[in-house]
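Hi V.,

Quick status before I head out on leave. The structure for the redesign project is tokenized and pasted below; the design run finished overnight.
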């Protein structure tokens, strides 16, 4: 099963993105919300993390927040599996926690490859991510220790992955899967009557921020709404309806874009033609300014520097770079503004354009 680890749209600094999954504002006294503090940043870490406490001892694990992944999994000590990972810091699943093959959630994680010859076997999975990294594991069920927004504490019994082997780059102790599938943290919390199916992010330009599950922090009158669609990942992702790119508030030829909101990566990605068109708009606007192209730096292929002075902050370039705006064309007056600091990254003394093709 292929999972996402890339962010397809920049989330503006300290700007809230609310994903509406169902009719939520009917109100339910039985539900609340959970608020998590975020660590990490878009660059250089390229990821955001939450601390989750799991098991009878409420051991903390730092998990990579990924709305493109359908399963939460934690690096673990797996019985009967050889591992070269250091044992310290790994999750140790109790024997009674193993989810059997006959469980309906096993069919959800295995998809078309679901094969349950022995109903009491454990439910194994292999996930392949966009960067070709792999995660091997099996399903377990244990308690997540959570503090609800209403002040109550809960020990939610949730199904997640015991990840005994990984190939590729996985920072932190595992993945916090927040997609729309039945295995996602969001869906499981809702199915137990703990929260509504609402997820929100608030990212700080200096790093960190917060993540919330549930609708207690959402005032529907103060939020601009746009429908969420599913474009890939078996209908489990968060896709946008058609979007037009505005440059400095004006229409462009970059239209009909469909974005996927995926917090698994800190950078933005556009397909080749929209990327080139956007880069051309920015480059044309810089003609006659003291900013000149320079050599690529680190992961960024497009870089500028001042021809006389060092660039020390975004204040030094705000007058040269124009804002980008995502105009959601199917809904009147719904726009997501991306000021300069939301599509450029400052590395050393050079402002670096951070939308990759």
């Amino acid at each position: 099963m292929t999972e996402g680890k890339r962010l397809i749209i920049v989330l503006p600094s300290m700007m809230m993105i609310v994903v509406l999954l169902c009719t939520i504002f009917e109100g339910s006294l039985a539900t609340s919300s959970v608020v998590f503090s975020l660590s990490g940043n878009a660059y250089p870490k390229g990821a955001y993390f939450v601390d989750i406490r799991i098991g009878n001892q409420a051991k903390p694990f730092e998990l990579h927040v990924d709305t493109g992944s359908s399963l939460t999994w934690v690096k673990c000590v797996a019985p009967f599996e050889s591992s070269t990972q250091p044992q310290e810091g790994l999750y140790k699943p109790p024997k009674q926690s193993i989810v059997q093959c006959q469980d309906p959630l096993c069919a959800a994680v295995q998809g078309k490859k679901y094969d349950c010859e022995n109903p009491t076997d454990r439910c194994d999975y292999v996930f392949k991510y966009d960067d070709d990294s792999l995660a091997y594991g099996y399903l377990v069920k244990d308690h997540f220790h959570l503090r609800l927004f209403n002040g109550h504490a809960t020990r939610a019994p949730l199904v997640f992955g015991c990840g005994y082997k990984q190939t590729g780059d996985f920072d932190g102790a595992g993945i916090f899967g927040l997609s729309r599938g039945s295995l996602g943290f969001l869906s499981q919390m809702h199915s137990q009557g703990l929260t509504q199916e609402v997820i929100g992010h608030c990212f700080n330009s200096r790093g960190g921020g917060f993540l919330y599950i549930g609708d207690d922090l959402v005032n529907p009158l103060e939020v601009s709404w746009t429908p969420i669609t599913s474009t890939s990942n078996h209908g489990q992702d968060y896709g946008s309806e058609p979007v037009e790119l505005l440059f400095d508030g004006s229409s462009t030829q970059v239209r009909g874009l469909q974005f996927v909101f995926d917090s698994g990566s800190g950078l933005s990605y556009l397909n080749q033609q929209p990327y080139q068109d956007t880069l051309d708009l920015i480059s044309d606007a810089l003609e006659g300014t003291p900013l000149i192209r320079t050599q690529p730096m680190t992961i960024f292929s497009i870089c500028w520097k001042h021809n006389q002075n060092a660039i020390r902050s975004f204040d030094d370039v705000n007058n040269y770079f124009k804002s980008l705006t995502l105009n959601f064309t199917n809904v009147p007056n719904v726009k997501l503004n991306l000021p300069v600091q939301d599509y450029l990254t400052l590395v050393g003394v050079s402002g670096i354009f951070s939308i990759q093709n």
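Above is the designed sequence. The helical segments are 104-110, 185-191, 272-285.

G. will cover questions while I'm gone.

Best,
W.
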